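#onboarding

Welcome to the new folks! Below is a worked example of what a typical request in this channel looks like: someone posts a single protein sequence, and someone else replies with the predicted structure as tokens. Don't worry about understanding the tokens yet, we'll cover that in week two.

Example request:
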Amino acid sequence: MSLSRLRTVLTWVLVMVLLVAVVLLGVRIAGLSSLPELEPWHRVILDEPDAAELDGMDWAAYQAAEKRLFEALHSQVIEPGSNDDAQAYNRYNSASPVYPGNLPHDWNRSFTLQPTGAVRGVVVLLHGLTDSPYSLRHIARHLSEQGFVSLVPRMPGHGTTPAALTDVRWEQWLATTRMAIREARDRVPEGPLYLVGYSNGGALALRYSLAALEDQNLAMPERLVLISPMVGVTRYARYAGLAALPAVLPAFAKSAWMNVLPEFNPFKYNSFPVHAARQTYELTHEVQRAFDSAAKAGRLTQMPPVLAFQSLADSTVSTPAVVNDLFERLPANGSELVIFDINRSQTIGSLLRPDMSNLLADLLPPAQRDYDLTVVGVAANAERQVEARRIAAGEREAVVTPLNVEYPSQLFSLSHVALPFPPDDPLYGSEPTSEEFYGVALGTLAPRGEQGVLVVGLTGLQRVTSNPFYAYLRERIDEDLQSGK
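Example response:
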């Protein structure tokens, strides 16, 4: 091909790329009209320590910085935006039933739980994206009752305003993990150290442990417990940052957001910025890069055992990634994957999509594995009775244990967000306890009506928010940590 011909081809390629970019940009800008107007909590970004500052902090210093952060939240967002409308379900209105300051406890902040008796060890629990320490309070409390000092740090960018997630970086979350583990080791120098990670916290737990393989200054946890671990996310997250490009112009500020929703949950953001999606992609990519590096250096044999709980149906993280990019890479070190299957009762079975109905068999066909595999689901030839089918590493035959519980008839599956919450959780539970009330019982909402009426999509409201098999999850955590298998 002549040089002039090559220049012509390259020019046309460039023109086509620019045209596609302009069209996509136009579509993105046109779609902004469907988003509600941004509120102060979508705009106000409060000052958080960066990763370098966090590496120089201890727990007390972090809590002092957190105290100043929440004072700034009150003066810059709560006070200017509050009114006398006590019926407004808005966590940023001090008169609202869901304002955290009006509730029995503000679980948006870091907390620790000390055992009442002898100390057996220490555990650090890492919450998920858009979340708060509330999501791990039940497990933290249970472990403290079992003799473990429990530390639950609030990750930077969380518990304050959704706008904070337009600025925070995953390196700050990892630095906070290091800070919490330093504190854990200082409090319990000799006892066992465990690390629990939920969702995005699961990715942080893995990245920290992989770093500890090569840095002896980092305390290595003896075991990891991962709940809905964010090992892989959708491909869209890789390019999510491009969707926010129009936000450099004030007129298109809404393009920085994937959704803008009412903030009626006191302990979790409903609105979600594009930047946060990009950070999850970067973190999961970093975890896989660290796995590659550890495998190449032969360090994976020193990886601590992993106990992971994962819903087969998960629209937030990739269940195949949990299997293929995590468990298939682990050494034969006593790890176990627990899968909560979809509801395969006769009533529900005929309504399942073929790809979901076949996902378990396609993802985990009969094979000898280097890890234990347990599937929690409806027993064969039973309507709704649930059993745990456990196949030990290196074996093919399952040991079946009835759980003496039924798969709830109204559920067709669990979900990403449900696993760490018991049915009696006052906010997310299907049967919330009457001992506490946090302004709204989200787990009991069952709205019905015509499409296009609510500002919040019915899909989000129908997502199950508590785990009917939570007792089994807690039992398996106890078994894993106590046996040290």
